[in-house]
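Running this now, will post back.
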Amino acid sequence: MLRRAHRRAASRGLGSVEFIEADATDLALPADSADLFLSFWGLHCFDDPPAALAESARVLKPGGRLVGSCIVRGEDSLRQRLLVRPGSGDFGQVGTEPEVGGWLDGAGFKVSRVAQSGPMLFFDAQLFGQHS
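Update: finished.
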């Protein structure tokens, strides 16, 4: 994914974009150092999504933006229950839409846009206030 992101950034002339590989709960970035944090298709893979969101809030500047998506529980179809099985395969803690909203709120984010399509939840949030 990082190689692909590097290639895309280079092809678009985005030389100021920096990519790092790190543990989602221990990013090698100083506090208040990022304007934008992207988290696509990963939150549902973590054992502790609230800790990952708290870490993204730590590295974002106040007013910084978090944009992402994740798989959520909640649809009651048999197919959905068979596909989304928290704790199995690549799944860690998979929340429902309200739970993900609570995790974001708990990390200091104000959600400006949220949409669910089947098992996918898309969100756009802004960090409010100062870090504690």
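The chain is about 30% helix and 25% strand. More later if anyone needs it.
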